[in-house]
Structures are given as C-alpha cells and as structure tokens.
Write a structure and sequence with these properties.
Helix content is 48%, strand content 13%. The protein has 19 helices and 16 strands. It has helices at residues 11-23, 34-44, 60-70, 85-93, 106-132, 147-160, 176-185, 204-212, 229-232, 248-260, 286-291, 297-303, 320-331, 344-352, 358-372, 385-388, 404-426, 431-438, 442-452, and strands at 3-7, 27-31, 48-52, 76-80, 98-101, 166-169, 194-198, 213-214, 226-227, 237-241, 262-263, 272-273, 277-282, 306-309, 341-342, 377-378. The strands form five sheets. Strands 2-1-3-4-5 form a five-stranded parallel β-sheet, sandwiched between helices. Strand 11 and strand 12 (272-273) form a beta hairpin. The longest helix has 27 residues, at 106-132.
Length: 454
C-alpha cells in the first residue's frame, strides 16, 4: 500500500488522523512542522502528502514548494479551515492535488485517498501508453499506435518521396487534411506553399475564378488582375478537399490542368505554367462516386495514382486511449481547473462507443467533458448523455424488417441528430461555425437540420 506523510503541528490531530489512515490500510509517517516534513520527504520519499496549511514552523506552502522541487509527481493534499479556502485554491493553482475542508472525517479521507490512488494509477497507465507510443513513421499532429495507422504512415512516407497525385478517402473526421499536410511537410516541397481548397465552400462560378485567377475587366467587379490559388501554390502542394463536390464542368477543366500543369486566367488568353503537387480527398467511396457521376472517371484515374484509405475510428480503437490523453493535454492549459486524466470507467465507455463522427467527434466529446468536469480527472458523469448511454443494443431494432439502405439511413439520421445537435448547442445555433467544425458546407448543415427535424 502507498506510504502517506501526515503533517500537522497539533499532537491530538496527528494521533487521530494517523489512526484513521492506518485503519484504512495505509502506512503513515507523521511530521509536526513543515521543516520536519521536508526532511522526511527527502529521506523516506512518501507516495502521498497530507498537510495542514497553517503551522508554526513552516506552513503547507513551504511543504508544497519543497515537494515540487524534490519530486513534482508526489500528490500534495491540503487541510484547510473555512477562513483559508482562498489559500487552498491558490495552492491548487501552484500544483497541489486537492484540498480538504475541516472537519476531516474517515469517509472524507477515504474518498480523497481513493481519488489520489486512482489518479496515480491513471498516470502510470499514461506513462506506459507514451512508452508504447513508438511510431516507426512519425506524422505531424497525429497520434496513433494501431497497425492500420502505421501502415497509413508508411504510405504517407512513400507518397512524400515522389510527386505523383494522391487521392485520400475516408469518412468525415478521420483526418484527411492532416494526412495531406504530412505528405507535403515530408516532401521536397515542404518550404513551398500548402494551399487547401474547400470544394463545398463556393459555387462553381466563384470557384473557377478563385482557382485560376482573373484578368482586370473579366467580369463585373474585376477591377484589377488577381492571381488564383493555382499560382499561389506554385512550387508547392494544392489540396482539393471533397473533390467529388466540384461541378462537373469545373472537373473537366481541372483535368487538363492536372495533365498539362497549364491554365488561363478567367478572361485571359495567355497560358500560365505552374509546378504543383496535386492531393485530393473525399468522404465518398471514389468508385461509387464515379458510378453516380459525381466524379468524372477520367479525373478519378488521374487523381488516384496513390490511393490512401483512412480507417474510421471504430476500426482503430487501440488509438482511443492515446488520442484521449492527447486531447486532454491539448485543452488542459486553457482551463482554470487543470484536468490531468480520465477515469477507467469513462475511458472504457469511450472505447466501446462506435464514433460515427470519428476523431473529430472524440475531440469534441473530450472538450465538452473537460469543460463540465468538477474534478481533475474526467469521470463517466462528465461525458455527454449520448456517449455514456451508448449501447449497440439501442440500434438493434433498426435492423428488423428493413433493407440495408433503409437501416443505413436510419442510423445515419440518428447520428446526424445527435452530432449536429450537439454542435448547434455548442455554437448557440451558429450554422457557419457548425459547418466549419463538421467540415461540411452550410447548405449541407441546413439539409441535415431539415431532414432530421432538429
């Protein structure tokens, strides 16, 4: 069992609390001043420290500061009276694990010690995870250890070593743009521009002028010649996100550009040459998009020289603990109450979830849970209702007496209702912000709201 150092300058309190601690099954060392405690810390290296704030010879802050210098991983818990709660809160900001308001009972001590031990256990597990996190191929801003993602990383490194076109496909939220950026950053074009283009953001007539640029007087409002994104990307990489959403006529024009690396300004006559790497992405199955005439067959063959298929999060659940801890560390500095981990039952709940919104949805859930958490670890009570109540049995009835397509539509509608509904609440109904978070157009969000009656 862990060894606990109890620090207080009153004999009676030391005797009473040390007896409670030993009855709970812990080894207990005692000190009657901050100075004595510091000496014991250096000699005995206790696992947990419980200290009063106000003492005659070296107060609780002295103990806390000494612990932070000696071993910042040792949890320090402060005893505080009603009049010194502000001091305890200040100590929390300085690195104390928690504080206990007097009077202190056996039940209170047991709860706080259980909490500390669970936290220490989680910390050890996180350290183990980080030690396991040895990627053969390092990708920027991506966390993974699953074999399927290692294989993706290997393909990224191979794609970065040549200039062939790349087509990335996978569900929304799987990280297609991050894969594209990694290919660029690991290529010999890394010092040149990476230009992302959202193919659902603009109508076809505006998209053409944005891509190719235009000459002065080419249309009303063209008061001067403007270079297009193709020119801006010269020497670097241009990334077409959701390529299947482009107008078919524009797809035909792009085919020639991709073949010849030449184009004209809108309203211009001179051919302009560019040296660009083409990477495209879609959340559709490309072959299906071709059959449905949403992607030209000749353009598909031109784009699909190096195909990279990203797996959904439900097929790489080994990565969920790593991703969860990564997001906790990312969001924690912005919170007044620093979140240091997640409880085992809450993590298991995340692992069991099916994650239709993939990594993006997991990130949103962690952000929401951290904003609601009252402790310094995320518990199952902090998770959104649709996550902690998730159970595959809830969708079983969907499959009864329905075709594959009908069942798929019902499941998709349920996901849209929960995921988009959550984002609408998060952004107070701001459709533009919801669309940006989802990676979809505003018009798609409007259609979802209309179809699922949000």
């Amino acid at each position: 069992m862990p060894t606990i150092l109890l620090v207080d300058d009153e004999n009676e309190i030391i005797e009473g609390r040390s007896k409670i601690i030993r009855n709970l099954g812990y080894d207990c060392l005692t000190a009657q001043s901050g100075n004595e405690a510091i000496k014991i810390i250096k000699e005995e290296n206790p696992d947990i420290i419980l200290t009063d704030i106000k003492m005659q010879e070296g107060d609780g802050f002295l103990v806390l500061n000494a612990v932070k210098e000696f071993d910042p991983d040792i949890p320090v818990i402060l005893f505080t009276g009603h009049g010194s709660i502000d001091s305890a809160v200040e100590a929390m900001k300085s690195g104390a694990f928690d504080y206990i308001q007097k009077p202190v009972t056996k039940d209170i001590l047991q709860v706080i010690l259980n909490k500390v031990i669970e936290f220490c256990s989680l910390k050890e597990e996180n350290l183990k995870l980080k030690k396991q996190f040895k990627q053969k191929y390092q990708l920027e801003e991506m966390v993974y250890k699953s074999p399927v993602m290692e294989d993706i990383a290997r393909k990224v490194m191979k794609a970065a070593g040549c200039d062939f076109n790349v087509l990335i496909y996978g569900e929304t939220g799987t990280g297609k743009e991050r894969i594209a950026r990694n290919i660029h950053l690991k290529s010999n074009r890394k010092d040149k521009p990476f230009v992302p283009i959202d193919c659902v953001a603009l109508p076809a007539n505006l998209m053409e002028s944005e891509l190719f640029g235009y000459e002065k007087g080419a249309f009303t409002g063209a008061i001067k010649t403007k270079p297009g994104l193709m020119e801006i990307a010269d020497g670097g990489t241009i990334f077409f996100d959701e390529i299947t959403e482009l107008d078919s006529n524009l797809q035909a024009k792009l085919l020639r550009v991709f073949q010849e690396r030449e184009f004209r300004h809108v309203g211009g006559t001179s051919l302009l040459s560019v040296d660009i790497r083409i990477i495209s992405a879609t959340n559709q199955i490309p072959e299906k998009a071709v059959k449905e005439h949403r992607l030209r067959k000749d353009l598909f063959y031109r784009l699909n020289v190096i195909p990279i298929s990203l797996p959904p999060l439900r097929e790489r659940k080994d990565d969920i603990p790593l991703l969860t801890q990564h997001f906790i560390e990312e969001f924690s500095p912005g919170l007044s109450n620093e979140i240091k981990g997640i409880s085992k039952d809450a993590l298991q709940c995340l692992i069991k979830n099916n994650w239709p919104g993939n990594v993006r949805e997991l990130k949103n859930v962690i952000e929401q849970a951290m904003s609601m958490a009252e402790q310094n670890v995320i518990t199952i009570n902090d998770l959104p209702e649709n996550i902690k109540k998730y159970d595959m049995s809830m969708v079983d009835d969907v499959f009864l007496d329905t075709s594959f397509q009908e069942a798929k539509e019902k499941c998709l509608n349920e996901f849209h209702k929960k995921y988009v509904g959550f984002l609408l609440k998060k952004y107070n109904g701001n459709i533009t912000k919801v669309a940006r978070e989802c990676g979809l157009s505003r018009w798609t969000i409007y259609r979802i709201i209309e179809n699922v009656d949000l």
